[in-house]
Amino acid sequence: MPPSTSSSDVALAARSVTKRYRRRGRAVLDDCTFSIPSGVVCALVGANGAGKSTLLEMAAGMERPTAGAVEVFGEPVRTGHPRVAYLAQDRPLFPRLTVAETLRYGARANQGNWDAALAERAADLPRFHRRERIGDLSGGQRTRVALALALGKRADLLLLDEPMADLDVRSRQEVMGLLMAHVADTGSTVIMSSHIISELSDVCDHLLVLDQGRPRLCGDIEELLAQHAVVTFSGGAQRLAGHTVLESRPAGRGTSALIRATAPLPDGWEVRSPSLEELVLAGLAAPGVCDLVLSPVPYAKEPAS
Ligand SMILES: Nc1ncnc2c1ncn2[C@@H]1O[C@H](COP(=O)(O)OP(=O)(O)OP(=O)(O)O)[C@@H](O)[C@H]1O
């Protein structure tokens, strides 16, 4: 049956996307198909080298897929899309410009669509000098200026590559607060990669787990959690037969496991919901076993005749 989602409900869709940086090189993204709905805050997680930055670069139009198609809001991606803002992992900025000049550059590049107050708060202007050159800033300060450019743009889709990676605790809280207030005000979609799952679980409602270039889990976090359970019971792991087992280990005289239940669970088993961190870690530890991509991908637009 065709999926009911229309392409306008989807912020980012990947259809059979493969990416190789060299013609005969390995596939950094390997036949990926998934979608991320509009209006969600999506955590993009995976081990080092899983392909997270590559995916974000493609969504921003900075890299092209070797095969397949990437769409934002139902249209093929392109660089400089007015509805898309991208915070790259290496925070590219002009080192000789001052902070104030950089923000003026952002305002000029996004004329008529620039939130100067938000950009100034994101850049933490009250705390460090607007006349400081970008090249003289610390890594964390540069991140805040780069974030200011992304947030100031009033984009409908924010692609943020490890936005908190080099921020101190106070800065993380401030930036998360600004980001969440912005999302609440505007309904923008955010896709942000991070390795700190505990930090994401408070703010994200959607999840995409990449592992070796493949989407392993993708969907609404509550739905994904509801489909899994941590079970503890007496006896060995053979009692899990018939369920999808992401992870199991001996626990005292019994067994504890994170499973996707495919049949009613026996009486006497202790059952609880997994945390997001448990689900992601178990999913990454069981490549191929746990694949569950809940987000439907709408059909491609008919080409105009
Ligand atoms: N420009 C490039 N040329 C060649 N290989 C690349 C390029 N960019 C990324 N790669 C390779 O693609 C793979 C995935 O890299 P990517 O940066 O997308 O992973 P990641 O999940 O973002 O990793 P991390 O968590 O370490 O940032 C890596 O093996 C990397 O070496």
Automatic annotation (TrEMBL):
Transmembrane segments: none annotated. The keyword rRNA-binding does not apply. This is ABC transporter ATP-binding protein. Residues 12-237 form the ABC transporter domain. Pfam families: ABC_tran. Keywords: ATP-binding, Nucleotide-binding, Transport. GO terms for molecular function: ATP binding. InterPro entries: AAA+_ATPase (IPR003593), ABC_transporter-like_ATP-bd (IPR003439), ABC_transporter-like_CS (IPR017871), ABC_Transporter_VariousFunc (IPR051782), P-loop_NTPase (IPR027417).
